[in-house]
Amino acid sequence: MQKVSICFGDAAEGDLLRQYVKRYYTGKKLTVLVDECRNWPELAISLKKEEKDVVIVALNGVKGMDTVVCSYPMVNRMIWISDMDFALQSFRLCVTYFFMKPITYMKMERALDACRIPGNISG
Questions:
Q1: pTM of the model
Q2: Which pLDDT tens digit goes with each residue over 17-28?
Q3: Across-strand partners of 36?
């Protein structure tokens, strides 16, 4: 079972991300458990409870950057989605995959593919 945490600010984007994540893993014939949060403190609580296979941060601007900076030491694979170009910062923080909004299934599919561990059918 894959464990994915989605941290988002906009409810519509959260619904879209949840649908895309479930669609992706269903297509790979993997089960997925998705939990959601709205900010860094909620994400920190979730990460302390259990390790996640993938963390998706979809918060705009500095709020997103702060969440990524605070959480990256606790996360192995992270997708960062922003309304601003933080590509250089994401590279420096070793974020697995960064892309800018708008969120599309094709972008999410590429990002989730980048988070899979080669040779590991469950990862």
A1: 0.93
A2: 999 999 999 999
A3: 6
